[in-house]
Task: inverse folding
């Protein structure tokens, strides 16, 4: 590992729960302009993917402190996958966010200030019902000026462990984040959590105004059925401090 890894104490701790993950095979040329300096697109089975991920944040703490009325909230993000080889040869697999939606303005302001992440604030709601026998039904909704959008997922039974080498492993086991900076550089941060279990789910995405949030080409792809979809049960997570990539890595 590199000597200047993020500090042991995390910037943020929380629980991520009931992650609905809709995964789309996309042409790599769509994502290349968004790839942070020093990273390259990651692939699975020779294909490039983006994911729309909707989930619950709970028990959220920044630098160990909870913020009243900002500890439990929804998030929806659109992300894709990259990798970077560190100075000692370690391959770090990470995610890059195209857009992140939360309902709390303070959360978005902190994330933009600390990481330069592309957060927006919109009204959001959710509905989650889980019974070990009946299965899982969940819905996440967010409202733009054109009306409500939403992700819905239905699954049966109990979640199962993720198989090694599977598509689900590729989507969930990226433990680094990378963000482009305004000056052309990039930052890297580590995300830690235990391995999740997943339900295979039937999903729908309804959107009154996906184009405003994501642009015409991304919206076009999101209106198609996903290539795969599942729900992860989630776990406690820790998001560590960002560090700027060395200029030679970011060139």
Result:
């Amino acid at each position: 590992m590199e000597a200047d890894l993020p500090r042991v104490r995390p910037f943020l701790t929380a629980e991520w729960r009931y992650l609905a993950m809709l995964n789309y095979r996309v042409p790599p040329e769509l994502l290349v302009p968004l790839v942070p300096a020093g990273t390259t697109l990651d692939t699975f089975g020779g294909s490039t993917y983006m994911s729309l991920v909707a989930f619950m944040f709970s028990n959220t703490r920044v630098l160990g402190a909870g913020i009243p009325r900002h500890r439990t909230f929804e998030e929806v993000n659109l992300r894709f996958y990259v990798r970077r080889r560190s100075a000692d040869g370690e391959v770090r697999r990470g995610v890059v966010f195209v857009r992140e939606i939360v309902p709390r303005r303070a959360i978005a302001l902190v994330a933009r200030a600390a990481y330069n992440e592309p957060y927006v604030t919109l009204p959001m709601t959710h509905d989650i019902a889980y019974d070990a026998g009946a299965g899982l039904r969940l819905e996440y909704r967010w409202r733009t000026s054109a009306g409500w959008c939403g992700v819905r997922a239905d699954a049966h039974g109990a979640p199962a462990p993720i198989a090694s080498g599977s598509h689900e492993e590729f989507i969930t086991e990226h433990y680094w984040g990378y963000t482009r900076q305004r000056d052309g550089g990039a930052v890297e941060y580590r995300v830690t959590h235990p391995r999740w279990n997943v339900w295979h789910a039937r999903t729908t995405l309804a959107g009154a105004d996906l184009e405003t949030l994501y642009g015409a080409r991304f919206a076009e792809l999101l209106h198609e059925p996903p290539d795969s979809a599942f729900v992860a049960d989630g776990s406690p997570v820790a998001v560590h401090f960002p560090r700027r990539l060395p200029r030679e890595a970011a060139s």
Remarks:
- The two ends are 21 Å apart (CA to CA).
- The CA atoms of residues 50 and 80 lie 4 Å apart.
